[in-house]
Amino acid sequence: MEKWAAPPPLAVAIAVAAIVVAGVVAGHCGGRIPTTLDGPFEPVTSPLDGAGFRGLAVDLPDLDPRVRRWAVGFEPEQISVSLSSTEDSVWISWVTGDSQIGQCIKPLDPTSVASVVRYGRLRRPLIHKAVGYSLVYNQLYPFEGLRNYTSGIIHHVRLTDLYLTNGTGTDCYHCTFKKTTPIHESYQTRWDDWARFMEPLISEVPIMVVEGNHEIEEQVGSKIFEAYSSRFAFPSYESGSFSTFYYSYNAGGIHFIMLGAYTSYNRTGEQYKWLERDLANVDRTVTPWLIATWHPPWYSTYRSHYKEAECMRVEMEELLYFHGVDIVFSGHVHAYERSNRVYNYTLDPCGPVYITIGDGGNRENMATSHADDPGNCPEPLSTHDKHLGGFCATNFISGPAAGKFCWTHQPDYSAYRESSFGHGILEVINDTHALWTWHRNQDVYNSAGDMIYIVRQPNECPLKPISLRPKAIDSLTSL
């Protein structure tokens, strides 16, 4: 197949600001790196590192220079880049004007500042111009003693027809995965602080997001996800979803599917119908890799959030499996875990590799106990989350844990798990091999906590038409 071209730098001017679109490069460790073809692997649990363990995260103080507002007047700040659904377009987002918080506040007029980006190649005039849209959102707190909030003017502009390829091929495409929680439960100034803190990175490296429980932020009028849906740019229209909760895009040789666990995922719903259309249109000769992402994991063995997203798994797992999804990334559980290839709780060489990478750091501390530890199996009803739909967390009906709600030892589909904060880097080498590396935050980059080549076998695992659904499902939806 053709090599994928790496994009040269792109210069973008937003008023007086300039940003550069760049990539992320990872290092390699010595020694032989195992591949998924060597598996399935015997389950491994890394012991808790008491000396290197990092506990609760805390907010930076308001006066810290990394989160202070340095922009003057309506200068742009909180600049970020997001990918669009095609390789020749990106979204540029930024904020102008200051947010307000208090009892008597007056929202800014989003039409008072133009949403214009001028762009071109570095060292060349910025001859191109794109016009987008702007908005302001309000957070009306339903809690006594809290003040109301109105944002600065949030701008989103899509740059199209970039023709970024310069004819110089590369064998790798790099993606960095680190689940982060920018805010917690409705205090909106944390969004501004987080965006300023992250701007040096996300103004150069594209960031793609999907909603999680911390972004629900229920407020007056039962509104939810207002900040999430307003502050980020989503290639929803381009990918045919028309929703900020689920969308898709291509990057390198990968087709990414971002799914919403906190909106309807039922087979009769809009998201499922969109997913069917999107998967049917994937061209595996162009994007041989198919990767899916959502917030709460399906295959996590930690006690925290155990089987919480079981209803979503029951509805959607078959569709993803029969279309040959290669890797699934999730967060939510504040620890790290990588699975063997699995489908319907059964080892399957054609199933996806599930990676829980919810260990980016948080104020809720690290998840350290497992559902299979003695005395740690949760009560089924305690696993229900009203924001995730119905209750489906029943006992296993087949396999080694038949008749039980939890395994009595680390499940055979769990290849490796460790309670450490960290991040992962995925490098797509070619159409069949991708290198996954997970690093503990406390380690240097030449030391990997987990490393494996994920190998696709398109000849051994051809795509299957969905004709008959499996007769045995481990859990049944009960609303």
- Secondary-structure-based class equals mainly beta
Low-confidence stretches: 1-30, 164-172, 180-184, 467-479
Just give the CATH class of the domain at 33-68 and 234-455: Alpha Beta
| Fraction in helix | under 10%
CATH topology of the domain at 33-68 and 234-455: Purple Acid Phosphatase, chain A, domain 2
DSSP E strands, number:
27
Q: Reading side by side through the largest sheet, how are the strands ordered?
A: 4-24-20-23-19-18-17-16
Count, helices: 4
CATH H-level superfamily of the domain at 33-68 and 234-455: Metallo-dependent phosphatases
Which outline best applies?
A: globular
Q: Please describe the biggest sheet, giving its number of strands, its sense, and whether it closes into a barrel.
A: 8 strands, mixed
What's the overall average pLDDT, rounded? 85
Question: What gyration radius follows from the Cα positions, in whole Å?
Answer: 22 Å
Strand content: 25-35%
CATH architectural grouping of the domain at 33-68 and 234-455: 4-Layer Sandwich
Q: Give the distance, in angstroms, between the N- and C-terminal Cα atoms.
A: 47 Å
Assembly form of the protein: single chain
Written overview of the protein:
This protein starts with a strand and ends in a 24-residue tail after the last strand. A hairpin with a 6-residue loop joins strand 5 and strand 6 (90-96). It is mainly β. The chain has a domain at 33-68 and 234-455: 4-Layer Sandwich (Purple Acid Phosphatase, chain A, domain 2), CATH 3.60.21.10. The longest helix is centred in the middle third of the chain and has 14 residues, at 189-202. It is built from four helices and 27 strands. 9% of the residues lie in helices and 25% in strands.
